[in-house]
Write a structure and sequence with these properties.
heterodimer; A: 314 residues; mainly alpha; MetI-like fold; 76% helix; flat; B: 291 residues; 11 helices; 72% helix; elongated; disordered N terminus
């Protein structure tokens, strides 16, 4: 990529982040308007008119919309995400508190997904038995069709209740991670495996593979040195896209397993109509997604030099 | 499934319009496809005439028969209040399938409109609309759906609309790619050359020829929508209890995961079967388009 192409790609990423912030602001802050303050005007709370006015002022409910927009934007830029409507604590603090748990779950889940996908794809393309090949190649489409929350419950049923291998409550930190990580990994491994199988098959059909084989390289040599390297770029691209799935998966996984984390925070924010928390999570998720995909686009030409010539604007 | 794969498929799609008819004929030689069609037909039957499939009441149970394992009398067993689970699954089809249909309709109409406009007008409008699509794609689908739900409130229809919004971007990208492809063909140029107006050419030539990839995507999104709606139902943002919506049904079995395995396992297996079937049919339609 030329310097100019990199700059243009960077600008594009910034634009998408800015638009995502604006969209989240319009959807969650501007459109609901006073709806989130109805909570405080509820007569059951017994707040006086003056107290309600004070709360409204504290949340900035009476400022014009463009001022609120600039204020929120300025806050987000310095890491101030406003205050939770539910309990008045700083949203930034709420997120920082649970972020490490979700990050750990996400990293482990994603790593497991990659291992699972590589295992499926390698065996599916390696096996000579056509029956086994078809079975393994069909596995990802089954994985994709499984509701994540159901998978979690079936895993609990089998491993905790039937086999008694993993304690439902009171297991160690490692033990309590096994099932959530598996739950998170299965749906993410599916598209990864599909892309891997397809690109491995594509690459294997190319003439250079026949040449390498003719020179006496073993199947394993070709698969690991030539084919896998060529299949890496499409896999990396899809991995960037799948990052969003990780966050969605965390919402369900953390809810089913009762783990603290960003997903659980999201679930509670929706249940409590806490738009401030949801807004911060949505914008952060968009930033992570855009940055990750930017990195994938910038790294890809380094892995596959053939991409250097084309300016990628997707 | 991902947008990227879809775009790749859309770009290589051929010029001929072969539709459901030929796909159905070839299905006779493919048991997997036939099974998929049968599964969808069955659950469609559940949705249209639930009374034909079960005599039990989905909402009223006999307390004496609570938490019974599957048997000849109760195929899927009974839940904690003695309601027949199979009956609840059958009566739930209309909620789950109906919501999925609304979701696909929202995504299809909004997404195809954006894609058609972007692809046929081009230029600045194209860039602006596609940046909008990029933004929709940059937010994880579930978070986007939850944002819409927090705005609209809980409920089956609102959950369906929220899921629909998450598929707008995919529909827009695929239909735009299709329009771009069709626009470059000779017959569209010829239609413009022989004096066709923009709208007339769009309606008579571009739209029908772009449709196949979009239909295949709609089938795929139908399966995805069933999954997404059941997830929202499970989290408690969809249909309120005692509606037998599939996600909610599975959620209700959560308390009995250790003692009554059938309450979660059996409805979940049905959801898997339906989603697999929708995906299989989608695959066949896009294969039909790629011949």
């Amino acid at each position: 990529m030329t310097g100019r192409a990199v700059l243009s790609r960077l600008g594009q990423a910034l634009l998408v982040i800015a638009l995502a912030f604006t969209g989240a602001f319009v959807l969650l802050q501007a459109l609901p308007g006073d709806a989130m303050l109805i909570k405080f005007e509820n007569p059951d709370l017994g707040l006086s008119q003056a107290e309600i006015e004070a709360i409204r002022a504290a949340y900035g409910a009476d400022t014009p919309i463009w001022q609120a927009y600039l204020h929120t934007l300025a806050g987000f830029l310095v890491g101030d995400f406003g205050y939770s409507i539910q309990n008045g604590t700083a949203v930034g603090g709420l997120i920082a508190e649970v972020l490490p748990q979700t990050a750990l779950l996400a990293v482990l889940g994603f790593t497991t997904a990659v291992l699972l996908a590589v295992l499926i794809a390698f065996t599916a393309t390696w096996a000579r038995n056509p029956w086994l090949r078809n079975l393994l190649a069909a596995l990802p489409s089954v994985f994709i069709s499984v509701p994540v929350f159901w998978l979690a419950m079936v895993l609990i049923q089998v491993f905790s209740f039937q086999l008694g291998l993993i304690k439902v409550i009171g297991g160690g930190p490692v033990e309590s991670l096994v099932l959530p990580v598996l739950t998170l990994a299965v749906p993410i491994s599916a598209p990864l495996a599909q892309i891997l199988v397809r690109s491995i098959e594509d690459v294997q059909r190319q003439p250079f593979v026949a040449v390498v084989r003719a020179k006496g390289a073993s199947r394993w040599w070709v698969l690991t040195r030539n084919v896998a390297r060529n299949a890496l770029v499409p896999t990396l691209t899809i991995a960037g896209v799948l990052l969003g799935e990780l966050i969605a998966g965390a919402v369900v996984t953390e809810t089913v397993f009762g783990r603290a984390g960003i997903g659980r925070l999201t679930e509670q924010a929706v249940a409590n109509q806490d738009v401030a928390v949801l807004q911060a999570i949505v914008v952060l998720a968009a930033v992570v997604f855009v940055v990750a995909n930017l990195l994938v686009d910038l790294i890809s030409p380094l892995i596959d030099p053939r991409l250097k010539k084309t300016v990628r604007t997707a | 499934m991902t947008t990227m794969e879809w775009e790749a498929g859309a770009r290589t799609a051929p010029r001929t319009v072969t539709g459901l008819g030929t796909a159905g004929l070839r299905g006779l030689r493919r048991p997997g496809l036939l099974l998929a069609i049968a599964t969808l037909a069955l659950v469609l039957g559940f949705a249209i005439a639930p009374g034909l499939f079960t005599a039990h009441d989905p909402l009223i149970g006999t307390a004496r028969e609570a938490l019974q394992a599957p048997s000849a009398a109760h195929w899927f067993g009974t839940d904690a209040t003695g309601r027949d689970l199979f009956s609840r699954v059958v009566h739930g089809a209309v909620h789950s399938l109906g919501a999925a249909a609304i979701a696909v309709a929202v995504g299809l109409v909004a997404g195809t409109t954006i894609g058609l406009l972007a692809g046929s007008i081009g230029g600045l409008a194209d860039s602006a609309l596609m940046r909008l699509v990029d933004v929709l794609l940059s937010v994880p689908a579930l978070l986007l759906a939850l944002s819409v739900i927090i705005l609209l409130g809980f409920g089956t229809t609102n959950a369906a609309i929220a899921v629909g919004v998450t598929s707008v971007a995919t529909f827009a990208r695929v239909s735009r790619a299709e329009v771009m492809r069709v626009r470059r063909t000779d017959y569209v140029e010829a239609a413009f050359g022989s004096g066709g107006t923009f709208l007339a050419v769009l309606r008579r030539h571009v739209l029908p020829n772009s449709l196949n990839a979009v239909i295949a995507l709609a089938a795929l999104q139908f399966g995805a929508a069933i999954l997404a709606i059941s997830t929202l139902g499970f989290l408690g943002y969809g249909a309120p209890p005692p509606t037998p919506e599939w996600g909610l049904l599975i959620a209700e079995g959560r308390t009995y995961v250790g003692t009554a395995w059938w309450l979660t396992t059996l409805p979940g297996l049905l959801v898997v079967a339906v989603v697999l079937s929708a995906n299989r049919i989608s695959q066949e339609i896009s294969k039909g388009a790629n011949r």
